[in-house]
TrEMBL record:
Residues 284-360 form the Glucose-1-phosphate adenylyltransferase/Bifunctional protein GlmU-like C-terminal hexapeptide domain. It comes from the Bacteria. The lineage of its organism: Bacteria, Bacillati, Actinomycetota, Actinomycetes, Micrococcales. InterPro entries: ADP-Glc_PPase, GlmU/GlgC-like_hexapep, NTP_transferase_dom, Nucleotide-diphossugar_trans, Trimer_LpxA-like_sf. CDD domains: LbH_G1P_AT_C (cd04651). The keyword Chaperone does not apply. Residues 9-256 form the Nucleotidyl transferase domain. It comes from Georgenia daeguensis. Pfam families: Hexapep_GlmU, NTP_transferase. GO terms for molecular function: nucleotidyltransferase activity. SUPFAM superfamilies: Nucleotide-diphospho-sugar transferases (SSF53448), Trimeric LpxA-like enzymes (SSF51161). This is Glucose-1-phosphate adenylyltransferase family protein. Belongs to the bacterial/plant glucose-1-phosphate adenylyltransferase family.
């Protein structure tokens, strides 16, 4: 159970611009994962499993795509008379803003809630974390800020990086051009509420009309610079989903080396359940090393791929090393390799999509597109272009 009165603020407003057409109609947290789940399910499930019952979801980009999936918080037992899930969407006319600006706009609500700890977490990562450990570390250290970190291989210029000495965070740099070391902030942060609100107000006073930006732009470096921040190291799997290639890779990880069991009864990753029948493999259909979403039908060949709900692969078709989202249709004799295919796409018979070589860049087909036989989408291609 949660150790104290903890308010979890889930930052679900990420536009996910590097995900290209995958986020043209949905927020990144609403992206499907594993044929059954959505990215936001991880943070909400960890909250439920950690005994945290006060959860605010802050939306900005395509808020309806997130709100619909949340279903009032019922899947995570957050549909409560007191506390539970609170969805904070953008107000009419409110311009899109960074994460610090979004928190500053809710400062009055946070103050009125009177939490002992404000826990902030992203909604676009695949991970498993017991938030009670983070809260316990934060309280034991009597810190203004606790930064959950993880070691990263590459891509550090896209993250906040930290330097640590004897458990204290001594430096925080947001998206460094030349990062020092390999220790990155995960985006999971624990704040002393008074320090958070005072820090936001200080940044607001200094920045004025320029806005507060993201948490890592000004607030976190300021708190770290005052010697008020400690580290909590995350040792397990952490995958930030920021690009098409990363989105494809977290699915291949799920097939090659599952980082954890989504159905672990001791720590389930819960999602909103939709009505579908079971998956079926018919006739000469062949499936190997794959995940089939509910209601999917395979009459062709599927290898090392993840199929969402309601996908149909016709006889003679091949789907290899690919991720197909809900309601995709692959026609007879079509071939889809090393590709992410968004929902509702129609790959007509004998069309070819993607490349077969190990190093080929992942191709992407936008939602509801129709790929005709005369059109070959090459490795790394984008359809429509």
């Amino acid at each position: 159970m949660a150790l104290t009165r903890t308010l979890l603020v889930v930052l679900a407003g990420d536009a996910g611009s590097r995900l290209e057409s995958l986020t043209a109609r949905r927020a990144k947290p609403a992206l499907p994962y594993g044929g059954t789940h959505r990215l936001i399910d991880f943070t909400l499930s960890h909250a439920a499993n950690s005994g945290i019952s006060d959860v605010w979801v802050v939306e900005q980009h395509h808020p309806l795509s997130v709100t619909e999936h949340l279903a009032g918080g019922r899947p995570w037992d957050l549909d409560r008379t007191r506390g539970g899930l609170l969805v904070l969407g953008p107000e009419p006319g409110e311009p899109l803003a960074g994460t610090a600006e979004a928190l500053w706009r809710r400062a009055g609500a946070i103050r009125a809630h009177e939490p002992e700890v404000v826990l902030v977490a992203p909604a676009g990562a695949v991970y498993r974390m017991d938030f009670t450990d983070v809260v316990a570390r934060h309280l034991a250290a009597r810190a203004a800020l606790t930064v959950v970190t993880t070691r990263r291989d590459g891509d550090l210029p896209r993250h906040g990086t930290v330097q640590v000495h004897e458990g204290r965070v001594t430096e925080y740099v947001s998206r460094p051009e030349h990062p020092r070391g390999d220790l990155a902030a995960t985006g999971v942060l624990a704040f002393d509420p008074a320090a958070l609100l005072a820090g936001l107000e200080d940044v607001r006073s200094a920045r004025g009309a320029d806005g507060l930006g993201d948490l890592g732009d000004h607030l976190l470096p300021a708190l770290v610079g005052r010697g008020e921040a400690v580290e909590q190291r995350h040792q397990g799997y952490w995958a930030e989903v920021g690009t098409v290639e990363e989105y494809w890779r977290v699915h291949m990880d799920l097939l090659d080396r599952p980082p954890f069991d989504l159905d672990d009864p001791a720590w389930p990753v819960t999602t909103r359940v939709r009505r579908h029948g079971g998956a079926r493999v018919l006739g000469a259909g062949q499936v190997a090393d794959a995940l089939l979403g509910p209601g999917s039908v395979v009459e062709g060949t599927v290898r090392r791929s993840v199929l969402g709900a309601g996908v149909r692969v016709a006889a003679g078709a091949e789907v290899i090393d690919s991720v197909l989202l809900d309601d995709v249709r692959v026609g007879p004799g079509a071939v889809v390799r090393r590709t992410v295919v968004d929902e509702g796409v129609r790959v007509r018979g004998r069309a070819e999509v993607g490349g077969a070589a190990e190093g080929d860049v992942v191709a992407l087909v936008a939602a509801h597109a129709v790929v005709h036989p005369r059109k070959r989408v090459p490795a790394g291609g984008r359809y429509p272009e």
